[in-house]
Amino acid sequence: MMKIGSIVNGQERIEDNREIVAVHNPFDNEKVAELKLATKKDLEDAVTISFEKFHSEMKVMPAHQRADILRKAADLLIDKTEDFATIISKEAGKPIKYSRGEVERSIQVLRFASELAKNIPGEIIPMDAAIGGEHRMGIVKREPLGVVGAITPFNFPLNLSLHKLAPALAAGNTVVFKPAEKTPISAYMLVKLFQEAGLPEGVINLLIGTGEEVGSPLVTHDKVAKISFTGSLPVGKNIRETAGFKKVTLELGSNSPNLLFEDANIDYATTELVKGAFAFSGQVCISAQRIYVHREIYAAFLEAYIQKTKALRMGDPISEETDIGPMINEEEAKRAKEWIDDAVDKGARIAVGGERNGTILSPTIMTDVDENMKIIAEEVFAPIVSVIPFNTEEEAIQYSNDSIYGLQAGVFTKDINRALRVADRLEMGGVWINEISTYRQDNHPYGGVKQSGVGREGVKYAIEDMTEIKFIGIKIDQN
Ligand code: NAD
Fold first, then answer.
1. Which is catalytic among the residues 272, 285, 332, 379?
2. What DSSP line would sit under 117-174, residue for residue?
3. What confidence tens digit (pLDDT) does each residue in 2-47 have?
4. Would the CB of 251 count as within 6 Å of ligand 1?
5. Who has the most CB within 10 Å: 21, 59, 382, 464?
6. pTM score of the predicted model
């Protein structure tokens, strides 16, 4: 069992007078690690060191060196894939095949960041476009911001952390990193990996602690230039209200819709939507939550979808055979089951699943639902999906947009005109055509509209959000 603490200026803070909290495997309750929680002083030190190291290290570090460190980190992570995947499975309860997939994506994030560190371009402004602007030159540069506060959730503890850390470093920032207290072990290993890759001490400072104790004061700290947050809507709202003048990126929740028109390929769509709704027990921000199916194919779709869902294997996340592991804790599993019961009370039907055994909720398909049920109106964040018939394109668009969220959607049709028409009208940060809402690559812009968030990730776009534009003007002729 590991004993870990925060890392400030390269030193682990594990003195005895700290509060101790354990991380348990959500599947079998095995104690995976003991955490020595960060104190307010650790937070203060972490920000102070990050601020100093921004000026002494990162602001002056050439791009090729930042790129090398990121490249080296990617290479090290390849060698440690199995170690990281195993820890993610144990701390988050994620089935091992998905944990490996997360590590593989994380390697790509580091590689994209390494390549982009060498390519943060500026531009020259045609100053003579303005009357009286003759004999002037305008240069636009992108500069790092300073200290970035990175606050991450439990569900992709490695990859979502890297979506903040890698672009922050590529752009020349320093980072105070506060991972989810439920899953801090892979985060701790990641900071060690950066040390091994040659990142100077104190450029990333890790705080292992709770949202209230260290997350909140990080958000309000004057020396922090930007908060990059991924997590739930209530915390995101609070950050938006308290961050003051800082830049803020918020990657929040959703109740993602997937729309299947009458010409959709049912076999392909059902196979993909089984993963789309149930991968990591639906604890994915773009998990397929609402599936709108044209009435012509509704019965055939539902039948095939139920059969494929029944074939999923539940069990120990560390087993190669497991498709569905536990939810993050029993409280969440109980909450999800209550939402199913609430829908049933209001007239919904369980087509398959709906059973809870400790932390495991069986993959659940609901029908006969309406927009007043929590499983439709709110982010369900559990292995629960609803299948809903529609008659017209207009109806499908209206239902999909009837949400406080707008992160990603999937549209399934062979008609390219309809696909593009619908994509234009969906109020989302991203729309996939003939792909599930749950699919994400690490190099496309990713983020939400409405209450799904503010700002974009996807390495190139995160670098833009983690830099500030500086204008430098020159008057050429001084006579
Ligand atoms: P959460 O909001 O409970 O916690 C996220 C992080 O915020 C944790 O590190 C937590 O300690 C910290 N935190 C809590 N209170 C805080 C406060 N007052 N100030 C500052 N930090 C605070 O989320 P979670 O349960 O870990 O993750 C699930 C949520 O994350 C879901 O809503 C999901 O949709 C969302 N999510 C969004 C994306 C995306 O990219 N849009 C990706 C993954 C997860």
1. 285
2. HT----EEE-GGGSTT-TTEEEEEEEEE-SEEEEE--SSSTTHHHHHHHHHHHHHT-E
3. 999 999 999 999 987 899 999 999 999 999 999 999 999 999 999 9
4. yes
5. 382
6. 0.98
